[in-house]
Amino acid sequence: MSDAAHALIETVRHFVFRERWRMELPPDRPLPDDLAAALERALAALDAAEASRV
Predict the structure, then answer these.
(1) What is the Cα–Cα distance from 44 to 17, expressed in whole angstroms?
(2) How large is the angle between the packed helices 3-23 and 34-53, nearest 10 degrees?
(3) Which of 11, 12, 31, 41 could form a cystine bridge with 36, CB 3.0-4.6 A?
(4) Spatial distance between the Cα atoms of 28 and 30, rounded to a whole number of angstroms
(5) What whole-number distance in Å separates Cα of residue 16 and Cα of residue 18?
(6) pLDDT digit string (tens) for 13-36?
(7) Sign of CA dihedral 46, 47, 51, 52
């Protein structure tokens, strides 16, 4: 993975984490904002793909 892609993914992780913290949402509740929810789903898919490679 390129440095730029890695930086982008870490930025998205931070954004999703802050949105959950700001809204005081537990991990089992979906984010209400469509963009944040889509980013969270994309991160979950990336994590699953990475886990299957190992």
Answers:
(1) 13
(2) 130
(3) 31
(4) 7
(5) 5
(6) 999 999 999 999 998 999 999 999
(7) negative
